[in-house]
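Propose amino acids for all 173 sites.
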């Protein structure tokens, strides 16, 4: 088995060794999945089911079968990724729904801006966010609210005009 273990992914050695040892000790069934690295470097998943038998306390034999389950493992991983993405999108949609309800009933602009920032950060998976409004004369943007900005950054963004080299200034330009 040591030559075989050269092909087993190093991260899977401890668990596979423990399962094989337990199966050999008991003379029972081994059912497990683990990764191997082929000689061309490709990583594959194997599902193994084997049976060992003991006679007079010694290993008498072992028979087993292995099946390449790489495609199933990849599909399971893609499904988990898709489910996580859908859960995040649902959460973002629910946050936007709450904000739209709040927009209709909110009379406190600061509370609305705060909710808007929270939703924007959740949707964008951002660490910081801001809301700006175009002043009535159309000459500059004014910061309405920000979240997780350093005080100096918040002061810098308080007013942005078209002469600013920032992305907001360029957009205004």
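Proposal:
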């Amino acid at each position: 088995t040591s030559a075989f273990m050269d092909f087993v992914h190093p991260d899977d050695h401890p668990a596979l060794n423990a399962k094989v040892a337990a199966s050999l000790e008991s003379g029972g069934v081994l059912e497990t999945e683990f990764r191997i690295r082929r000689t061309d470097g490709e990583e594959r998943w194997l599902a193994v089911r084997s049976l060992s038998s003991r006679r007079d306390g010694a290993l008498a034999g072992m028979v087993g079968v292995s099946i390449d389950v790489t495609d199933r493992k990849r599909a399971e991983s893609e499904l988990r990724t898709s489910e996580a993405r859908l859960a995040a999108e649902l959460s973002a949609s629910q946050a936007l729904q709450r904000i739209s309800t709040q927009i209709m009933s909110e009379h406190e602009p600061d509370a609305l801006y705060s909710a808007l920032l929270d939703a924007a950060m959740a949707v964008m998976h951002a660490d910081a966010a801001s809301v700006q409004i175009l002043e009535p004369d159309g000459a500059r943007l004014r910061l309405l609210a920000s979240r997780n900005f350093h005080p100096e950054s918040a002061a810098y963004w308080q007013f942005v005009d078209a002469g600013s080299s920032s992305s907001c200034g360029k957009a205004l330009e």
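The longest strand covers residues 43-55. The mean pLDDT is 86.
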